[in-house]
Amino acid sequence: MTSAPEAPDLPDLNFDPDSLRDRYRRERDKRLRDDGNEQYIEVKDRFAHFLDDPYVEPGFTREPLEDEVEVIVIGGGFGGLLAGVRLRQAGVESIRMIDPAGDFGGTWYWNRYPGIACDIESYTYLPLLEELDYVPKEKYSYGKEILDHSQAIGRKFDLYRDALFQTRVVDLTWDDEAARWIVETNHGDRMRAQYVAVAAGPLNRPKLPGIPGIEDFEGHTFHASRWDYRYTGGDSSGNLTGLRGKRVGIIGTGATAVQCVPHVGEWADQLYVFQRTPSSIDVKDNPPTDPEWAKSLGPGWHQKRMDNFNNLVSGIPQEEDLVNDGWTDLIGNLLVGIRKGKTQDFSPEGMAKAVEIADFEKMESIRARVDELVEDGDTAEALKPYYRQFCKRPCFHNEYLATFNRPNVELVDTDGKGVERITKKGVVVAGQEYEVDCLIYASGFEVGTDYSRRAGMQFHGKDGRTLSETWADGVRSLHGMHVRGFPNCFLMNGSQAGFTASYPHMLNEQAKHLAYIIQTGREKGLEAVEATTDAEEAWIAQCIGKARDTGDFFENCTPGYYNNEGKASERSAQDGFYGGGSPEFIRILEAWREAGALEGLETR
């Protein structure tokens, strides 16, 4: 493991970088587990009820379909919506949207827990704002506004036409002779499509912690992504009157828990929050949108703002920080250091050292904020995150930390070990049982598991070969989107594609790219497009080469879904995000389209 060299040109630091590196390493090491992602339980069989949709009437049925459309888009979240919109704009009329949810919205359809809001600025995060002539109500949108916006996109671009909701695709099979995909669903459908775009989303399949005894608990339980308001009362704004007199346990302290814990703590008789790793909690300044500012926005303002934010969080200095929040703070600290002469070595090694120091300063301020807000010293110490800022998704909240000052709220810190076991009556940590009436899993979503498993469907390409078989030794693609042996199939996937903190930004770039290819195929009268073996090999080599830029960072991080739960395998370089960063990845796609040659795609 490499450590950055010491910084003799930084005499005014109020911390010791070597001591912090050592603390970060110790905190990481005690959380490392041999089982990695296998520590979680797949939500199926006796746990399948955790996937039930609480927002629709049960028992939905319809007659199966056996018709044909030009494009089937699988997924009704922002990825699917953006694919549908860009296809509409490219002149494609025959589009069918399919989603297991009861409406558009994706993760914002499923996640309606109390306090849900976006932690990326709404003027950056919400897609298609100019196309809908809409400016969000606040700097950070609450879940209801984002769900409404999703459905407004569907209406604006006529994507409800032919849409199939409450429908889960279970199998995609390529018919090579007909050059069509056969799409089968849980309703017995056997539809055909020339093209399929798969936008299953990275946060669509809940996961449960594999804690011994999880099936023994006899109280009420649910996953936070399927919040049970019939039990808790209230809605996403709070008012959880059903929790009066109840003892509640929440397992997880990530972005979901940070937002819902204050509401549960307000209404429950007793709340236990079970923590393995604390989140980084920064200030959330959420003013209402200034109507005069909104009126002043000129054409192209939205893309300009998205690019500005994405460049800053990717470490690319900008003349102006348009967003100016906790996400862009780190690069701001770095630039201040450069201006003050703290950084004089501008070699790659010198800049890496400067970024690390700026990161240390940022996280020191995060930890100081815990001391300011949390009254009990032991609780405050347990809530301090000791890792680099972007090792885990940063959180922004003004009530979470102070909630632990309530006499009815107790942080049960597991010192990185996690919950020991679950019993009929409650949760055991370090030999002590905490009895609860209700247990809520804020344990996140499957990220690093097999793609077909996460998408909930099997892919059969040429000669019946499955995607799981094709990727058995690592992801193989061109631009993260095309896979050899799977013609006319577009994966809106993160592997071998650019990573953006504001995920819809990348989904929009992928949507524009696939729409361009389909439009070009229509103009040229093509039946099929498919990645060539050479193009795939070249892209894999490029991804592995670029991965060296980020590999050491994530290897030294505390375990989480960003680094495959601390199991940075030999395949991480091949299976991870494009290591050159999303701005570079976007430029690659733009240059590819501008060349107009469909380079790397075999056509017929």
Provide a descriptive summary of the structure in words.
Among the domains are: 36-42 and 206-284 and 369-441, FAD/NAD(P)-binding domain (3-Layer(bba) Sandwich), CATH 3.50.50; 68-205 and 447-530 and 585-599, 3-Layer(bba) Sandwich (FAD/NAD(P)-binding domain), CATH 3.50.50. It is globular, with a radius of gyration of 24 Å. The model is unreliable at 1-8 (pLDDT under 50). The termini are far apart. It has helices spanning 17-29, 78-89, 107-110, 122-125, 143-156, 229-232, 255-267, 291-296, 301-313, 329-339, 348-373, 377-382, 400-403, 451-455, 467-470, 503-524, 533-555, 572-575, 582-595, and strands spanning 40-42, 68-74, 95-98, 169-175, 180-185, 190-198, 207-209, 220-223, 247-251, 270-275, 281-282, 395-396, 409-413, 421-422, 426-429, 432-435, 438-441, 458-460, 489-491, 529-531, 601-603. Helix 2 packs parallel to helix 16, helix 10 (329-339) packs across helix 11 (348-373) and helix 16 (503-524) packs parallel to helix 19. Strands 2, 3, 4, 5, 6, 18 and 19 form a 7-stranded mixed sheet that branches. It is of the alpha/beta class.
Topology:
Layout: H1 17-29, E1 40-42, E2 68-74, H2 78-89, E3 95-98, H3 107-110, H4 122-125, H5 143-156, E4 169-175, E5 180-185, E6 190-198, E7 207-209, E8 220-223, H6 229-232, E9 247-251, H7 255-267, E10 270-275, E11 281-282, H8 291-296, H9 301-313, H10 329-339, H11 348-373, H12 377-382, E12 395-396, H13 400-403, E13 409-413, E14 421-422, E15 426-429, E16 432-435, E17 438-441, H14 451-455, E18 458-460, H15 467-470, E19 489-491, H16 503-524, E20 529-531, H17 533-555, H18 572-575, H19 582-595, E21 601-603
